[in-house]
């Protein structure tokens, strides 16, 4: 088994696709529309779906915003240079909510940004991505 995708409901599909493509550098892999049930989908990722987990953005026609709730945490993305990545997000008008620095209680360098719908995205430097905070089993 493997993770195929993570689905996020968004209030403006074009705005969200633009963010994930232009700010986070993902490729738009495919889209679809379902007029009968009034929703549109966009799948984005860094590699093809048969090789990597991707993001599924779901736009339910006529719904412009959602309450994010308290169960959702974040999506984590590995980056080579967390400082340059955060600067690039800012230069594209993105919102950095936690500047790069060590995670509380550890040394792994992380940062957080938000997408246009308020979903949190954590950046972890690739050199530290495997170690994270967990213990090996």
In total, how many beta strands? Answer: 8
So how many helices? 3
Terminus-to-terminus distance? 18 Å
Helix content, binned percent:
10-25%
Strand content: 35-45%
Looking at how many chains there are and whether they match, the oligomeric state comes to single chain
Principal-axes shape call? globular
Key terms:
four-stranded mixed beta sheet; alpha/beta; globular; 137 residues
How would you concisely characterize the structure shown here?
The protein has three helices and eight strands, in the order E-H-E-E-E-E-H-E-E-E-H.
Which secondary structure elements does this structure contain, and how are they paired or packed?
Layout: E1 5-9, H1 13-23, E2 27-34, E3 39-45, E4 54-60, E5 75-79, H2 82-91, E6 95-102, E7 109-114, E8 120-125, H3 126-129
Parallel strand pairs: 1-4, 5-8
Antiparallel strand pairs: 2-3, 3-4, 6-7, 7-8
Detailed description of the structure:
Helices cover 18% and strands 38% of the residues. The protein contains three helices and eight strands. The strands form two sheets. The chain has a four-stranded mixed β-sheet, with helices on one face. The longest helix has 11 residues, at 13-23. The protein is globular, with a radius of gyration of 16 Å.
């Amino acid at each position: 088994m493997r993770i195929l995708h993570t689905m996020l409901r968004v209030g403006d599909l074009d705005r969200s696709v633009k963010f994930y493509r232009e700010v986070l550098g993902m490729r738009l892999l495919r889209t679809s529309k379902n007029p009968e049930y009034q929703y549109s989908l966009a799948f984005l990722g860094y590699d093809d779906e048969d090789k990597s987990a991707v993001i599924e953005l779901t736009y339910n026609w006529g719904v412009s915003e959602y309450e994010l709730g308290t169960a959702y945490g974040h999506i984590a993305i590995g980056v080579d240079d967390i400082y340059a990545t955060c600067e690039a997000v800012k230069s594209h008008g993105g919102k950095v909510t936690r500047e790069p620095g060590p995670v509380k209680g550890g040394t792994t360098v992380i940062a957080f940004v938000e997408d246009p719908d308020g979903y949190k995205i954590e950046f972890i430097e690739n050199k530290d991505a495997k170690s994270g905070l967990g213990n090996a089993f």
